[in-house]
Amino acid sequence: MPTRNDARADRDFIAGLGKGLSVIECFDEENVSLGVSAVAARAKLSRAAARRCLLTLQRLGYAELDGGLYRLTPRVLRLGFAYIASNELPDLLQPHVDQLSGEIHESCSASILDGNEIVYIARAATKRIMTVALGIGARLPAHCTSMGRVLLAALDPAEAARRIAAAPRKAFTPHTVTRKEDLLQILQQVRQQGFCVIDQELEIGLVSIAVPIHNAAGKTVAALNIGTQSVRFAAADLPARFLARLKAAQKDLKPLINGPA
Amino acid sequence: MPTRNDARADRDFIAGLGKGLSVIECFDEENVSLGVSAVAARAKLSRAAARRCLLTLQRLGYAELDGGLYRLTPRVLRLGFAYIASNELPDLLQPHVDQLSGEIHESCSASILDGNEIVYIARAATKRIMTVALGIGARLPAHCTSMGRVLLAALDPAEAARRIAAAPRKAFTPHTVTRKEDLLQILQQVRQQGFCVIDQELEIGLVSIAVPIHNAAGKTVAALNIGTQSVRFAAADLPARFLARLKAAQKDLKPLINGPA
DNA sequence: CCGGATTGTGCGATAATCGCACATTCTTAG
DNA sequence: CTAAGAATGTGCGATTATCGCACAATCCGG
Prior knowledge:
Beta-Lactamase, 2 domains, DNA-binding, 46% helix
């Protein structure tokens, strides 16, 4: 730990950039338009700083002012899109997700891991099966989702344990597994069998199955899943019903994915 | 023009934030990983400033360093998602887009206008019909797309003329209309008939039809389109084939969309 | 083994950011 | 209708964080 480097890092840290980004992240579904004070409170900035950020974002076209309330503009999509476009994964996966969903008439998604959360990078839904809508960029806790467990299982076990320990591990339903030891054991099992089935741990009535997606070098870079309703398929029946198709997609994709991603 | 206000705006402009955002936007499909110098050149910053931004982004988890080259992390999706989540439109539109696409077995998308470009906010594809992949957040010039013309037609005519004049108006195919006067006349027609058909102006073999989506107050806030291949449907047949469905969706959505968006 | 290019570092000067305190406007309640 | 409360916009001096140059270290290609 080079204390010299840390000092350097502190010197070279642009405070204004960090503040501005937190300001952008202040906005969400429940906070479509925010005033200066609200932003300051949410981003933990002084009102003056929040105001400066907002003014700057407005001047750059990332936010607009409407009667004292600020709101984000479509331009911020450029930022997220900078990632989507710079990463081949979403483009590669989306067609497969579309096709898979079309063939089996069930919802199908792909996601990657970011900390303790999975992030949707491709998605195709037959109809809305969950109460929450999950578009590209949506986040869900990793510990209680089929894709999340597949992705955690692909990590170094110590790292996986660390992330699980750090996660809130909220119980969304009575079925949600939240004990750290249980989760680690499940991860072990997922690692061995090469897929993961979730039985109503995120939402009652929702079951899903996921497999890892590997790049050409064999590293897990994403997860692919099929989600459906428990009234249509019992969780125990998912492997027999869908695993072959998921494995086929997994195999098709592997040679197409180059980078270390 | 309050010259006093401008001075104030200049004072309150956080340079670091603007620089950081341009740095993020440096990354795209052809530039997945960039070095400090490359970023500096692209964002038109001094190397020192670019380096500081990169370091800051890395510390905040928006970028990662891999052997001298920086790359964006999935975390930047949070930024774009701040917009998606804060705007009801994508969530409202996506299910309709999915359903429409499922029913008619053609690709279906929704987009909004940002300057001279349309931005995809919802999408469902049967198979990949275009050479380019268009995910959420993808941008296309407004002047030569069906949704773009519908959205431009909804603007104040003077404003539409201004944006068209400002746009590059590249001719993607021999069919692309690029003359300003012709485009304005087409807009007039679109405004009257309430929809727009494009015949291979963006890509040879690609035809599409779009209608505006209105909010409850009657203001156009998005566009909805169906795209297919000219070998399957002639452009002239699109209205008879698809307009009724699009209009139905338009009508269904209108009462659901509240805000001034 | 040696250019050429790129990255990392140190440092002083400058100017940009900060946040307080006040004036102003808008909203809410009585 | 008026007054209290809250939130926004403004001015300004001090501080400190940002800037970019110039040099050292490193990587890459010939």
